[in-house]
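Topoisomerase II, Pseudoalteromonas piratica. C-alpha cells?
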Amino acid sequence: MVIDKQGYDELIMYLTEHLSLFEKPGEVRPGAPTVMALIEDDIAEQIINLCMQHEDLSVDDRSLIMREVDGIVYDLQEVLSGVINQPVTIEQHAFIDEFAGLVKNLFDSAVS
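C-alpha cells:
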C-alpha cells in the first residue's frame, strides 16, 4: 500500500536527513516519554485518525494498514536503535510529531 512506494522511500530519506537530531543531546522535559514510546503513540494516534476519517475502509484494508504500520515502526526501531530507550528531547518530539503526520499523509493518499 505505501511501504513499496516512492513516497515511503522519500520519507525514510527525510528521516536520514534529520538523524543528527538523535545523535546529540538536547533539552528534555521532565516526564518525557522515551523515543520509542512517542513514536508508537504518535503513529497510533495518526492511524486512528486515518481510520476515523475513512470509515469506508474494509477490514482487509485496515489489516493491511496495520501490517504496514508495524513495518514502519520496525524500520524506525532499527534506524534509531541506539536512542529508542532514551527520553525524547524537545527537538526530537517535534520531529516525531511531524514524521507521524507524514506517515498518515502517505496512507491518506493511498486510500483516497
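The chain has a mean pLDDT of 96.
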